[in-house]
Structures are given as structure tokens and as C-alpha cells.
Amino acid sequence: QVQLVESGGGLVQAGGSLRLSCAASGSISSINAMGWFRQAPGKQRELVAISTNGGINYKDSVKGRFAISRDNAKNTVYLQMNSLKPEDTAVYYCYAAHRGSDIWGQGTQVTVSS
């Protein structure tokens, strides 16, 4: 089994930056992909960024502002978020694809004030 623990959320003004971290533990050798999703109040959960064996994909609205990276030595994935906008406000969830199963972290709140 794999466990994911996120950190780094918080309150920031528009135009500011935050970095989210997600540490994986357990059977990490079988993780095929890791990434970040988010869910705003009243909306469906959506993909923000994901790193797979085939490369990296971003939601169109965060391209050029957000960057996902992985530190395999630390079993950690990061999401650097720059030029934040109020519409980026959401609960951000770390995600891992593991042996055909979807693994989720507990979520971390990101709030961007205007």
C-alpha cells in the first residue's frame, strides 16, 4: 500500500506563490504516476498537473504558472505555484497511480485572496 501526505497549503494574496509537497511512503516502487488535483467548492475535482512515464501534463489555465517536479530520492512530488489567482482557490490533493489503483492524499487548502 501507498500513503500520501501533503503539506504547504495556506493563504496567499493574488500574484503570490506557494509550494505544495507530497511525501509518499509504502510500496512506492510500483507508483506509475504522481500528480496534483484540486477541488473548489461546488465543483468537480480536476487535474492540475501530473507526471507520468510519458511526461508531464498541465491544466491549460495553470501552464506557465505552475510547475510539478519529483524528487525520487525523497519520494516526494512538489507543485510550485506562482502568479496565483483567486480562481486557484481550492483543496489540492496529491495523487498516485499504484498497481491499477488511485491513491489520494488528505488534501491541503489553498486560498488566494484578491
Record the SSE blueprint.
Elements: E1 2-7, E2 10-13, E3 18-26, E4 31-39, E5 46-52, E6 55-58, E7 66-71, E8 76-81, E9 90-98, E10 101-104, E11 108-113
Parallel strand pairs: 2-11
Antiparallel strand pairs: 1-3, 3-8, 4-5, 4-9, 5-6, 7-8, 9-10, 9-11
Summarize the structure.
With 114 residues, the chain is an all-beta fold. It contains no helices and 11 strands. Strands 2, 4, 5, 6, 9, 10 and 11 form a 7-stranded mixed sheet that branches. A 4-stranded antiparallel sheet has the order 1-3-8-7, with no helix packed on it.
Query: What's the SSE pattern?
Result: EEEEEEEEEEE
Q: What radius of gyration results from the CA coordinates?
A: 13 Å
Question: Can you give the mean pLDDT?
Answer: 94
The DSSP helix count reads 0
What shape does the CA trace take? globular
**Classification by helices and strands:** mainly beta
The helicity comes to: under 10%
Number of strands: 11
Low-confidence residue ranges: none
**End-to-end distance:** 40 Å
Main beta sheet: strand number and arrangement? 7 strands, mixed
In terms of DSSP E residues, the strand content is: over 45%
Structural features, described:
By secondary structure, this protein is mainly β. The protein is built from no helices and eleven strands. The strands form two sheets. Strands 2, 4, 5, 6, 9, 10 and 11 form a seven-stranded mixed β-sheet that branches. Strand 7 (66-71) and strand 8 form a beta hairpin. It is globular, with a radius of gyration of 13 Å. The N and C termini lie far apart (40 Å). The mean pLDDT is 94.
